[in-house]
Amino acid sequence: KQEVTQIPAALSVPEGENLVLNCSFTDSAIYNLQWFRQDPGKGLTSLLLIQSSQREQTSGRLNASLDKSSGRSTLYIAASQPGDSATYLCAVRGGAQKLVFGQGTRLTINP
Amino acid sequence: DTGVSQNPRHKITKRGQNVTFRCDPISEHNRLYWYRQTLGQGPEFLTYFQNEAQLEKSRLLSDRFSAERPKGSFSTLEIQRTEQGDSAMYLCASRARTGIGKDGYTFGSGTRLTVV
C-alpha cells in the first residue's frame, strides 16, 4: 500500500527566504507525482506535475524534483512571499487511477 | 469551461438527513474522481468514473454513499442518513484521457459538509 509522508508538517519563515518542502513515498512504482497548493477552506490548485521519467519541473519561482528510486520529491520555493502562505500537498499516482496524498505542509511566510 | 465546478460550496445538514453534491468536470475530461478531506489531513480517494462507468470504490464509501455519472458528464455524490463523522470537504477532480494534455488532475473548489 502506497504511503506518502510530508515533512515538515508546518513551516514558518520570513519573507524573501528560499525554502524546501519534502515529500517521500514508500512504493517507487509511480506513474507521476503532482504538487498542489490549498488555501484555507478552498480546493486544490495544481502547481507542478512530474512524470516518472522526469527529474524535475519548474514554474516561475517553483522547482520540483523527483528521485523515484529513493522515493523522494522536493518542492523548492525561491524568494518566498506572504502570498505563498498556504498548505502544500504532494500526491503520487501508481498503476491505479487514484492519487495518494500526503498530509501536507502548512507554510506561513511572515512579512 | 475553465475548470471543475462543484455545488453547493457549503452544506449544513441535520444528522440523519440525506444530502447530494454535484460536480461538473472539464468538458473534455472523461475521468472523474471524488475525494474526501477532513481537517488537517490530505484528501482520501472515494470513487472513480471513466465516462459513465464507476470503475473503483474505496472502502471508505459505505453503503450510505452512492455516486453516479449519468451520460458521462456531471456526477452526483449522495450521502444518506448523514452522521457527524461525514463532516468533511468533498472534492471532485477530473482528468483527460491518457496522452492528452499533461495528464494531471484538476480539482474543484470542493463542497464543505457540516453535519449537526
Compile the SSE list and pairings.
The complex is a heterodimer of chains A (111) and B (116).
Chain A: E1 4-7, E2 10-14, E3 19-25, E4 32-38, E5 44-51, E6 56-59, E7 62-67, E8 72-77, E9 86-93, E10 99-101, E11 105-110
Chain B: E1 5-7, E2 10-13, E3 19-24, E4 31-37, E5 44-50, E6 53-57, E7 65-68, E8 75-79, E9 88-95, E10 106-107, E11 111-115
Parallel strand pairs in B: 2-11
Antiparallel strand pairs in B: 1-3, 3-8, 4-5, 4-9, 5-6, 7-8, 9-10, 9-11
Described by its quaternary structure, the protein is heterodimer
What is the count of β-strands of chain A? 11
Give the class of chain B from helix and strand content and strand pairing.
mainly beta
Helix content bin of chain B: under 10%
Our estimate of the beta-strand percent of chain A is over 45%
| Count, helices of chain A | 0
Please write the string of helix (H) and strand (E) elements of chain B. EEEEEEEEEEE
Amino-to-carboxy terminus distance of chain A: 41 Å
Average pLDDT figure of chain B: 91
Average predicted local confidence, pLDDT of chain A: 94
Shape of chain B: globular
The count of helical stretches of chain B stands at 0
Q: Can you tell me the residue ranges of chain A where pLDDT is under 50 for at least 5 consecutive residues?
A: none
